[in-house]
Amino acid sequence: MGSNVQEPKVELVHDEAIVKSHIEELTAAQLPNSAIYNFLLSDVRIVSATKGSMTARLTLTRNHINSGGGIHGAASAAIVDWAGGMAIATWDLRRRTGVSVDIHVTYLSSAGEGDEIEITSHADKVGGSLAFTRVVISKVVDGKAGPVIANGSHTKFAKQR
User: Fold this and answer.
1) Under a CB-based contact definition with an 8 Å cutoff, are residues 115 and 63 in contact?
2) What is the pLDDT of residues 61-75, one digit of tens each?
3) Rg (CA), the chain
4) What is the DSSP string of 39-80?
5) CA angle 105–59–103, rounded 5-degree value
6) What sections of the chain are H helices per DSSP?
7) Is pLDDT above 90 for 156?
8) Which of the 8 DSSP states describes residue 142?
9) I need a labelling partner for 28 at 20 to 30 A (CA). Which of 36, 43, 62, 90 fits?
């Protein structure tokens, strides 16, 4: 006679400390292997990370600034690229986050040298082949995320081998 008792479904639940540590380690491993990430993100600090999202902070230096004194659009796009990948990595603690298929950045305001920015990224969907992410870059004001500098979306081919 079979039992009618159903076994509970076991879901992989990521402890925030484990996910944050994974993102910190992944970032540290990526920087020496990517000239652009090393140039722009050597001082990035991971604030928090949970399954599907990551928050980081970065103080802007001359490396991030355009000739007009504001954050360079290319720096913002590189940040969207990196942060989208990190959101994917939080999904299942993967080390490989795929290759970019599409990246879009909307520039809304600016920040200058010495300003701190907050970078938040979310993986909206991580499927078998494609992953879809959103990134918001904000200027930090009085210790909190303030005016949005840029919004980004990033699609990656993220099929695991």
Assistant:
1) no
2) 999 999 999 999 999
3) 17
4) HHHTT-EEEEEETTEEEEEEE--GGGB-TTSSB-HHHHHHHH
5) 15
6) 16-30, 35-41, 73-92
7) yes
8) T
9) 62
- C-alpha to C-alpha distance for 87 and 49, rounded to whole angstroms: 8
d(CA 36, CA 81) in angstroms, rounded, equals 11
DSSP-derived secondary structure letter, 89 = H
List of residues 6+ apart from 8 with CB closer than 8 A: none
For the chain, the average pLDDT equals: 92
Q: Quick check: 3 pLDDT over 60?
A: no
pLDDT attached to residue 85? 97
User: pTM, whole model, 2 decimals?
Assistant: 0.89
Task: Tokens for 137, please give them.
Answer: 């870059």
Tokens matching residue 85: 């990948």
A 10 A CB-CB count for 155 gives: 18
Query: Which SS3 state, helix, strand or coil, does residue 120 take?
Result: strand
Q: Is the pLDDT of residue 111 over 60?
A: yes
pLDDT bucket at 100, cuts 50 / 70 / 90: very high
Residue whose C-alpha is closest to residue 120's, from 142, 90, 97 = 90
What are the C-alpha distances in Å from 140 to residues 90, 115, 149?
Answer: 24, 7, 10
